[in-house]
Amino acid sequence: MSSASEPLMTVSGLSSGYGPVTILRDIDISVAPGSVTALVGANGAGKTTLMKAIAGLLPAWSGAIRFDGKDITRVPTHERVGQGIVLVPEGRMVFTLLSVEQNLRLGAITPRARDNIGDRLEAMFKRFPRLQERRRQLAGSMSGGEQQMLAIGRGLMAKPRIVLLDEPTLGLAPIMVKQVFSVIEELKADGYTILLSEQNSRLALEAADHGYIIENGRVQLSGPGRELIDMPDVRRLYLGR
Amino acid sequence: MSTQLLFAALVAGSLYALVALGLNLVYGTLRLLNIAHGDLVMIGAYVAFWMLSLLGMPPVLSLFAAAALCGGFGWLIYVGIFRKLLSTPALARRLEANSLILFYGVSVILQNGVSLAFTSTARGYQYLNEVHRFAGVAASGNRLMLLGVALVLCLGMLLFLRFHLFGWSLRAVIERRDAAAVVGVDVDRVQMATICTGFAIAGVAGVLVSMTEQITPFMGFPFTIAALVVIVLGGLGNIFAGIVAGFALGFIETFGIAATSATYRSILIYGLFVAVLLLRPQGLFGKAIQAR
Known about the structure:
The structure holds 2 protein chains of 2 kinds. Chain A is an alpha/beta fold. Chain A has helices at 47-55, 77-83, 100-107, 117-127, 129-133, 144-156, 174-189, 201-207, 225-230, 232-238, and strands at residues 9-18, 21-31, 36-40, 62-67, 70-71, 85-88, 162-166, 194-198, 210-215, 218-224. In chain A, strand 4 and strand 5 form a beta hairpin. In chain A, helix 3 (100-107) packs parallel to helix 6 (144-156). Chain A is globular and about 45 Å long. Chain B has one domain: ABC transporter involved in vitamin B12 uptake, BtuC (Orthogonal Bundle), CATH 1.10.3470. Chain B is 76% helix and 3% strand. Chain B is built from 11 helices and 2 strands. Chain A: Residues 9-241 form the ABC transporter domain.
């Protein structure tokens, strides 16, 4: 068990990419337990690639990922989920041909998450009433915002110890963007540890305890979210003023 | 419409549905087009024939023996070849296209291996060929068994996919393998279980076929074609629609032949195949599934 001062997860010297193309170069980040940590930066900076590498969907070419004191760099994706590292992927990736409830129950497929599924399902419906209304409906028939809520709910069903939220507001209407951020606030209040990747830099840094600015696959700057917002360079380059 | 013809269509349809079920499961989860699928049906048929001839084992028990043998072959081929290739995305993409050629090789080896070992003479045996009469239908026991076993397996698979958590995880892998891994599904295990199941179902279908008709080492190819027509008709990877399409093909074939003559069988089947590809390539019931 890690003490409160130790990070829950650390990524050190990580490089990765697709085929011959290097995307991530020597990335170092750490996530403190119970915190919201934001990755911000332009489209194509490597945020999603980093999320995929942490989830195990992409191999690390070099460097290491440690979670709760253990090296998980070579652990396959489903076992990382089993340990509580849960990705809510970019583009939501809900199973469109399964019902809302089946999607949620499938979220609890790992051995660690299989107890009291019924109770946790009810709790999830309380958190996302919209999903209860659509419980028997095919996930593919829902709006983008509803699918995002389902993707988050599906992730929470896995009893995450860290939630990797990858671009949760991508393609959503402004009202839904607001809702997603209020969900993030709620999750934080409930004690979840969150790593958030977000193109909406201002909202993300406002919500975050700590932020990393990613540019061309490298960490350019890091610091407490509020401090980053107040830095003139950050304001000019990432916040549009 | 005679009930006799209806029964014949049901029997043919259930067999097509069963054979196509195995092919569709393997295609859906692994994205491998198993062109040797019909040859596994042939292997199942030979298991039944030799178990009866040499050991006097009733074909109903051979259902299990053939399932075990073909399922085991699926396991061997997965562990030996596909596991490693599928785990590397770049190789997996090429494999999908190359699987056709690879399985064609498997098909040639199986056909000629069996032909070499047992000669290409057609073989057959008598089993449950007493005739039952009901509701204007004269049905042999072996055809009733074929219909019964095929229906139970198809229905069982559908119920499993509808109600069981692992059934959902299989559907999740069919729809999006990366998303399945993200929720914690052990994709490797699902793939292995599916290839074993798909191959085993083909073996079972072979035993059922051998009860009702003569068998040869080259009997498999028409089954491969029929199964391909069925899964194209239903939409690749769509298990439920594939089963419906299997019965549809049985009905079209049986009533089509009754209305014309047996010489039109191939024209009917290939005509249907081409028509579906031209008019509705995503399948009659189809949502297109995503390429990897």
